[in-house]
Amino acid sequence: MTIRLPWMSRADRARWRSARTLADLGRLTADWWEGSVRSLPGRRAGHRPDPALAAHVPVLAAANRAGFLASAAQVGLATARVRQKAAVQGFTADPVLIHYLVGAAEKAGLDVVLHDWHDAFYAEHTGGVTVTRTVHGTVVFGQALAVQDIKALWPRLPDAVDAVVPALQITLADAVFGPSDLLWGALADAVRGLNEARLHG
Can you say whether residue 145 is alpha, beta or left, with left for phi > 0 and alpha for psi between -120 and 50 degrees? Predict the structure, then answer.
């Protein structure tokens, strides 16, 4: 019999508490995408990625290990009840990675939203991009996150919060609703470009 505990395992708690840098958090989040870490801070214990993202786990894990801490992602979808854009949002403090992410996104015709935590204080700069429409409402990615919002994503992990707050908040989204591989190709291109620059730099 399998017993599912309603709290994060001791091993996962220790892993997240040990994270001190954005790179540490990226590696752990990559492990979560791949399944060797079972829980994310700020989510219910055992929360797993949407199965619809299974084909994109390799590029999401690679992006996290490259320095893009991807905190949320979704595939494009078009049904009678739900319309979604492929989208990802996350954080990075690496200016070279920012260059490759934005460049690849612009080349693919994606929507790009950039914020830092200061933008959350200014209503005119907090907007994001609508990535989901349903009969019940909409979901927006890319709204500027204040320090309190970041604390909610990594509760009781002050070192993680300190690492994330100064980072640039980046959202990439397909320009249209429905299935699309543009986002995932752009993300892969950005990671590939960064890795080649690091190799030859």
Answer: beta
